[in-house]
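Deviations from the work plan: none for this task. Representative record:
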Amino acid sequence: MNARQSPLLEVVDLVKTFPIAGAFGGRAGEMTAVDHVSFSIRRGGVYGLAGESGSGKSTIARMIMGLFQPTGGDVLLSGANITGTLGTRAHSRQVQMVFQNPGSSLNPRRTIGQSIAVPLEAHGHPRADRRRRISELLDMVQLPASFADRYPHELSGGQKQRVAIARALAVAPQLVVLDEPTSALDVSVQARVIELLTSLGRQLDLTYLFISHDLSLMRNFADEVGVLYRGRIVESGPTARVFEQPEHDYTRLLIASVPVISAEEEALRPTIPLIDGEIPTAEKLLALRESQRATEVPKRT
Amino acid sequence: MSDALLSVRDLSVEFTTYGRTQPVLHGVSLDVPARSHVALVGESGSGKTVTMKSIMGLLHMPPASISSGAILYDGRDLLTMPRRERLKLTGTDMSMVFQDPMSSLNPVFTIADQMSTILKYADRRLGRSRSRRERMQRVLEVLAQVRMREPERVARSYPIMLSGGMRQRVLIAMALLSEPRLLIADEPGTALDVTTQAQILKLLKDLVEERGLALLMITHNLGVVRETSDYVYVMHKGVVVEEAPTAELFAAPKVAYTRALIDAVPRLTGARPAERTEAAP
């Protein structure tokens, strides 16, 4: 197997449970946010995790970043088990993250240059070279070097997100986790940020884990997707296949729910049976299918 | 002159802060005929929310001031009529579905409390009155209209006990309380998951259809425009840059800005508009 095809990141049987607080500091039980999730991302690939709120997509990202310790399962980077070193400096040299809201993920009291310098400092980048490296990074995200002396409030949302991308790239990571990187942006700005991410990925041979609830965006950006529902991946595969022939009812419901702007897209949306004249919730639809399967002769639609 | 139910004529609004005056709307005109479904679409800062607030009388003046124009409702100018008259219309004959169900409901009162208060004041402004019991009846009736399966239970609930989708339904119910003819919806469902949003949009469409209401949908989402409207106004930097029947706008946008906006939307098919593939490095 050559290096191109071998996975950069492998997630095996990842589990995260959170205690549910009971009265008087006691524990009322546990909730499973991530329930035995496995997937892998090939080197240079873009893997999309699609899911709605509460599906566990951000929890998975945080475990990969070492912000949460997994309750069970393993994380492998280039074949090496790194579950024990998640969150260490060595780990953060290889894995970086771009957060959802650039307005709150940049320190308002630091200049852009100072913000980008933080990871450089932490990883012992030579002091004398920092200024040059910061200009280089700003240039990579297509911002003028003069932005280093500005404060976040002077920048637009799209520019701030470019800074956040520059900061994530400062230590030249292999894997970048993108947690809803454009959901706070206008659609025209989003298109440009996604273009930037695509070209940077190619240029720097980056691997992306892309987390989003926006299925249309996922269709365009990810080459493989996993659909999360209640902490489980209910369906995964190459993006085109999942979108064109979704197998799981939840995936079908998700795709059918996207408001679209052309007849071609409409044709792609699966039809979902209405329950009492309404579009069913995921629970209802899955429950209906379950009961149909129990009563009818098993058949695949 | 048009005989539209709502007609915004040449509206200009400016904001004065720290002695500096900034024009925000430049001569905006739009029509919402009775029983029509109209969308107003624009990115952040385009002026769509200021337009909506001017219509509903929700602008804080100062800092805002309306420098010219008229807002005709049923042929009468809302901007020049006495405040008392205007209040008989806003929140009753023309009402509003707000965006964020988390922040537009009061956490310490039950749904029934909040809804009957709205009804009480609407009645008072219109010089009507009904008993507490009749109000409660109307509340339950409207909750059933937004397809709540157990209206009594929902009425007794506090907002925190309801899911995001249920709260959005409550907000729609609130807008329907005093039988409006015009519904102005400000990005309903944006705060919700995509499957819930689809349910809410379908509900809104069905309700508007069933009751013959006029709908003005204010949104930044072109998909929502396509699914809920027949006619659309595109705003950019305080100006209506293009207006057209919705199908026509998507088939053949005339203005460069509209074209760029449509092209920027990622497609579910994965197809990219021609210009963008060329532009990509």
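Chain A touches chain B at residues 52-53, 186-188, 190-191, 194-195, 198-199, 213-217, 219-221, 239-240, 243, 253-262, 264-265, 268-269, 276-279, 281-282 (CB under 8 Å).
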